[in-house]
Amino acid sequence: MTNQKRYIELQFPLVFDAGEIVGFIDVPGFVGAWNDNGQTKLYWDATKWSDNVIEHIQYALRHIGVDDASTKMLVREVPDKDWNEIWNASVVPIWIGHRIVIRPSWHPVTMPQKGIELILDPKQAFGTGHHATTQLLVEWLDELIKGGEEILDIGTGSGILAMVALRCGAHSALGIDPDQTALECATGYAKENGFSTELVLKRSSLAELCTTRVFDVILANLDKDTILSSYRAFTKFMIPSRSVLLLSGILSADRLEIQSALVAEGWSPTTEREKDGWIAMAFSS
């Protein structure tokens, strides 16, 4: 008789983007991550589990701005499950605003008139629209884009923001990210959703970006440290008196420091939005 395979379940009493955290976990034995009834759950092959995994999880949580979740984490051993069935059931369409939906391919929805649909089957990469920082900018883009804009998406991850901007009517989008896994994921999503030369995805940090282009809208869904280490470069790609800069991934305790840094570089704060404790900020050039 064969012994049933066992797994380690890490259970958190809060919801964060399970897909986003996966990209920061680089230890063997990882099985999957998903959200379930107000909780986030991560799973490991029990034979490859070690206490070192906890350190990786804590690092990943800090990187996405979830600082105290590991102190409330429940770790337990569970038997084998039908992982595909659980995964498929847990990934549902996300409606953002009144007309934008991000959904897995196996979950069709009825679209409203002039609705915008992106099909994203979660992979080992970065966010699929669940996180509030992404949703804030998606909602803003739906209102901001009038048609014909040139978009720069810094830290594009899975490419959601660039693709939404194009679906809303932008002329072209350049998405950059220094992480190769994220770029491969974004490239796959772009192909699956029918994008072509209007969307360019490049492996690059903002400091390394070599282009003479300027942009009508600059998007940066980043953490505080990344914003403060690269904000001076935003100005290089702006159009005076025309460009809009949208920042997200900001905690309320950091907003004044970030605002002061951008004002010193010639940006003018215009408005802010908040969702689930996260802040998005808009600036004009």
Concise overview:
It is built from 8 helices and 14 strands.
Characterise this structure.
The protein has 285 residues and is α/β, with parallel strands linked by helices. It folds into 2 domains: 6-89, Alpha-Beta Plaits (2-Layer Sandwich), CATH 3.30.70; 126-284, Rossmann fold, CATH 3.40.50. Helix content is 28%, strand content 29%. The chain has 8 helices and 14 strands. The chain has a 7-stranded mixed sheet with strand order 10-9-8-11-12-14-13, with helices on both faces. It has a 4-stranded antiparallel sheet with strand order 2-3-1-4. Helix 4 (132-144) packs parallel to helix 5 (160-167).
Strand order of the largest sheet: 10-9-8-11-12-14-13
Radius of gyration: 19 Å
Largest sheet geometry? 7 strands, mixed
CATH superfamily of the largest domain: Vaccinia Virus protein VP39
Rounded to the nearest angstrom, the distance between the terminal CA atoms is 69 Å
Strand proportion, as a percent range, falls in 25-35%
Structural class: alpha/beta
| Name of the CATH first level of the largest domain | Alpha Beta
CATH architecture of the largest domain: 3-Layer(aba) Sandwich
CATH topology of the largest domain: Rossmann fold
Report the strand count. 14
